[in-house]
Every structure is written in structure tokens, then in C-alpha cells.
Amino acid sequence: MAVAELSCHGLCSSSATNGNNHGSSFLSSKLYRSSSFLPSHLHGSQFQPRQRHHPLKLVCSTAPNQAQQQSQTAQVAVSPSVNGKPKSDSSQCYGVFCLTYDLKAEDETRSWKKMINVAVSGAAGMISNHLLFKLASGEVFGYDQPIALRLLGSEKSFEALEGVAMELEDSLYPLLREVSIGIDPYEVFKDAEWALLIGAKPRGPGMERADLLDINGQIFAEQGKALNAVASRNVKVIVVGNPCNTNALICLKNAPNIPARNFHALTRLDENRAKCQLALKAGVFYDKVSNVTIWGNHSTTQVPDFLNAKIHGLPVTKVITDMKWLKEEFTEKVQKRGGVLIKKWGRSSAASTAVSIVDAIRSLVTPTPEGDWFSTGVYTSGNPYGIAEGIVFSMPCRSKGDGDYELVEDVIIDDYLRQRIKKSEEELLAEKRCVAHLTGEGIAYCDLPEDTMLPGEQ
Ligand code: LMR
């Protein structure tokens, strides 16, 4: 497939680079476009077609007046993009990010880790708008972890993506070493060590749930293929775009060279919501609530588990004795929280979703506190709870902080819980049948239960 020549936005080295020289001793903060399918306004004589899988080549020209102002140690780089339009004849820097500093001496005193590549899809959306700044600040991966952000948008969102990149520039994050933007996952996911897949189409008026599964499923099939082709072999993938469990399943099935256990569906937001409701009922601060599992699908069949949850280290059922509230009100509140929020906001949760993505990542990169666990949707393959194999199901997990996890074995599953878990399992199995054409498992057959919805659908 033909792709367009790259142009710089913000800083790029005045010499050609593949945008990937992680071993460099230079602070290389650069924004570059990578795209095989640029918005129409970016097509034109200034873009030369080239092959998709060639190394990214940054083509920059130097603004002579600015070049004269640079110190001897700074190399000049420029952005040919002004107001989202490519400039082929002259260039304009974005302030301080036009400079390349030789920070070798400073880096040696810092004991920072090796830079990591984090790819984010739906990067021009509301969730990302909260998330990206947290990632760049160091609060997610640590204040000694330099980061490269690789932002995937769509043709429609491309200018907004440039706006996001500009705001990242203006935030002067010391740990933010590179920012790249593009609309081709094969370019943007290159060498990604984390892929946060947020972008998905929301369900529109009159759209059947099966249609949504198909439309979004195709996006995640393509992104799975791209990850398989170009991402790090140990990339950790967190799928946020709904229906996230089945999207994660589609994604992992299309990425056979990446371990299936590396794929997660985000149910941490549901866990956080459950903790909040339990704290509210018990009259305690929410940090006193632990061991909360969300079982199953990120949908209205999800099962917030109060049986194994704790408040101040005691079983929740000893602190909140109103079983009717726990079984009915609490459960439904958590299941439908997203929908209630949509009614208030007029759109889906964004800030709390971003926070829960941060929580989900931190749960994998820091050791789980002794005796506690966290919820995440993972591929069922040899689980101890008797849940059907081959689906992405939210379960209780622990991590040593190495990016991997293990399932928690010592949980109680009573008849109530088992029955509820079964319903979510059946829903996920039906979703799986419905996307068989996207997972390479034969002909799709959609017999989705009618009464189950995304948390936002009511
Ligand atoms: C949420 O739980 O807030 C979202 O998944 C809701 C939605 O459907 O967008």
C-alpha cells in the first residue's frame, strides 16, 4: 500500500532517522506523522508515495532565521505543519521543541530507565485527552521512566490529533521523549510495548448490538494484525473500546505471535465503581475497600463480587449485612453506572475511564499488595473457576509487577455468584459466536441474549 512521505510536527532531527533510535544519547522529542492514509487536505504534490514497511524517514527543512538563533550545541529541526496544513516551502518550529539537546551528561546522572513505547488508539478522543497527560507526567510508569507516545487517530480526527500533540509539546514533560501521530496502525504500533486500544465506534441510533460487534470487531481485527506484524513480541494490550471483552478476543486471535495472556479488557472502571458504592454504603473512605472482583463481561451482566470483597480487611457481608441491597441495588448500580453517567454528561465516562486505565497499568507494573487483587478481563485458558475456555473474562488477578499476572485461586464462589457468572459467560460465548468470522473460527452466528447491554446502553 502506498503511504505518504512523513513531515515533521514539532521537533525532528535535521538528519534522517527512523524515529526509533532508542539507544540515542540525545533527548529526541519529536512529533512526526506516520500514515498510509492521510486526510484529503494532506494529500498533494508535497507527499511522495512510498512503501508501508519502510523505516520512517523524517524530512525536515530548516528555518534559516531560527537556525541562526540556536546555540552551538543545539541542532535545529523544524515543523513543516502550520495550522494542520503541511508546508512544503518553509518551516516553522514549535518553540523549544524545535531543539535537539545533547543531554548525555545529564542523563548519566539521572539513572532513568530505557524509554518505553506506548501506543494509544482513539488518541484524539476524550478518554485519551485525560490519559495521555498522565502517561507523559510519569504518574503511570514511574518518574524515572522516559516514554514515547505513539498516537493513532482516524482520518477524521487527524487535525484534532495534531492539537493533542501540540498540547503535549506545551506541557514540557521531561519524561516525554517522543510523540508521533498517524492513522495507520502498522506504522503507529511499531515496537509498541504497551498498546492502549481506546478508539471504537459508539453504538448509534438503530444499530443492533450485532452490528456494533461487527463494526468494532473489524477495527480490532485489523489492529490485532498490525500488533502481530510490528509491535514488540511482549506488548501488553489493554482494550477499552466497547464491547471490550470481545474486541480483546478478536484482537488476540488476530495476533497469534503475541501471547494471548498479554491482552486485557478493561474492567477496572467497574471495580472502582463497585469500591465506591461499597464505601458509600459502609460509611468508610474508599481506600478501605479491597479484594473486589468484577466477574465477566463489561456489560450489564457483569458480576461485582461482594462475597469475597473486604472492608477494613473484614468480609463485606460482615460490615454491610443488608443482603438485599448487596444482591440487588449494589449489583445493578455498578452494572448500570456507565449509563447513568451518560445521561448526566451526555457522553460516556472519560476521566474516570482514564484513571482506571492508569490503575490497570499500575496493577501490572507494581506488585499487588499482599492479600489483595485486582480485576481485569483476560483470556480464559486453564482457569480454576470452571469458566468456559477461549473467551475474555474478567477475573481476580495478582501481579509481581513484571507486567504479567496470575489468577487468584482462593476465592469463594457460592450458588448466587455461580449463577450470575454463568449469565455473563453465556453472553460472552454468544458474542464469540457472533464474531467467529473475525476470529478465524468459522461462520458467525448471532444469537445474542436480548436483555444484555453495554453499561452505557439503557
Ligand atoms: C462505561 O462503563 O462508562 C462505558 O463503557 C459506557 C459506554 O457504553 O460507553
Notable traits:
3-stranded antiparallel sheet; 9-stranded mixed sheet; disordered N terminus; globular; 458 residues; alpha/beta; binds (2S)-2-hydroxybutanedioic acid
Task: Give an overview of the whole structure.
By secondary structure, the chain is an alpha/beta fold. 34% of the residues lie in helices and 18% in strands. It has 13 helices and 24 strands. A nine-stranded mixed sheet has the order 6-2-4-13-12-11-14-15-16, with helices on both faces. Strand 18 and strand 19 form a beta hairpin. Helix 6 packs parallel to helix 7 and helix 8 crosses helix 10. The two termini are 42 Å apart. The structure holds (2S)-2-hydroxybutanedioic acid. The site of (2S)-2-hydroxybutanedioic acid has 9 residues, from helix 10.
